[in-house]
Write a structure and sequence with these properties.
Elements: E1 2-4, H1 8-18, E2 23-29, E3 35-42, E4 45-51, E5 63-68, H2 71-82, E6 87-88, E7 93-95, E8 101-106, H3 107-113, H4 118-129, H5 136-142
Length: about 140
């Protein structure tokens, strides 16, 4: 469940337009015909967005992870999610324009951080800690 002030439908529409294998499943509307809840799936994972008013706001206690295969795909999602008022974080984290936290992570990150050589894995960790948007080539260079 993602709590929004009044942007549940706008957020769900944006997310499902951006990510493959994603769709809006159902919208429950109130008497004023505004969305109350929006049920949607992102890459096969189901979520519900609620227009619950300003009582709660999104925070980093919840984030959506996108696992990507290469730098081009990472950049596509990173720049789309940080556009129009989103903000870049550290170590692959960002907030979109709705305040929802995301992690855009290349599959290579797990390989680099899980390198059997502790020294190489440590260098990969150091490289990641110094990044905002993750750079695949720099992570791979850290373990080379």
């Amino acid at each position: 469940m993602l709590w929004f002030n009044d942007q549940a439908e706008e957020a769900a529409t944006f997310y499902t337009s951006l990510l493959p294998k994603s769709e809006i499943l159902n919208i429950v509307r109130g008497a004023d015909n505004r969305a109350f809840t929006v049920q949607f799936s992102l890459m096969g994972v189901e979520y519900v967005a609620l227009n619950g008013g300003p009582v709660f706001t999104p925070n980093e206690a919840f984030s959506i992870v996108i696992s990507v295969g290469d730098q081009e795909e990472l950049d596509k999602y990173w720049y789309a999610l940080t556009s129009e008022g989103g903000s870049e974080g550290r170590c692959g984290w960002l907030k979109d324009r709705f305040g929802v936290s995301w992690q855009v992570v290349p599959r290579q990150l797990g390989e680099c951080l899980g390198n059997p050589d502790p020294e190489k894995a440590g260098r990969a960790m150091q490289a990641m800690m110094g990044m905002g948007r993750l750079i695949v080539a720099e992570l791979e260079a850290a373990v080379a």
